[in-house]
TrEMBL record:
Transmembrane segments: none annotated. Signal peptide: none annotated. Pfam families: TrmB. Residues 24-95 form the Transcription regulator TrmB N-terminal domain. InterPro entries: Tscrpt_reg_TrmB_N, WH-like_DNA-bd_sf, WH_DNA-bd_sf. This is MarR family transcriptional regulator. It comes from Natrialba swarupiae. Coiled coil: none annotated.
Length: 123
């Protein structure tokens, strides 16, 4: 059983799981990554340095969180050119309704697998 499958199974044991916990299980992210996602909703277009200050975390840790969130397509990155030359990356979280839709799809897929397993059982 994969870690994600185990997380989904554990989640089913909780009567009323928190949205953040569902998000962590469905997308296979950690709590600090979920906090980063929600912080980006508060401050869209933030840089790694700005997020690190807001989250009170090291920039390298925030950068890793953003990489994970980008891999799961929960966060997008845009390059902004600076007036004095050079550039900086800005990060944007996908809208919550889009994340919710993806979560519904993942849970439905998991439930379908469970239903198939139930149907396999029997004489």
């Amino acid at each position: 059983m994969s870690d994600r499958e185990q997380q989904m199974e554990d989640l089913m044991l909780v009567e009323r799981p928190e949205f953040e916990r569902i998000m962590e299980c469905v997308f296979g992210v950690q709590a600090h990554e979920t906090r980063t996602y929600f912080q980006l909703h508060e401050l869209p277009g933030s840089t790694v340095a700005e997020l690190a200050d807001e989250l009170e975390r090291d920039r390298s840790n925030v950068n890793r969180s953003l990489s994970t969130l980008r891999e799961t397509n929960l966060v997008e990155r845009e390059r902004r050119l600076l007036d004095g030359g050079g550039y900086v990356y800005q990060y944007f979280a996908i809208p919550v309704p889009d994340a919710q839709e993806r979560m519904h799809e993942a849970v439905d897929e998991w439930a379908e697998t469970v239903h198939e397993r139930i149907e396999e059982f029997g004489p």
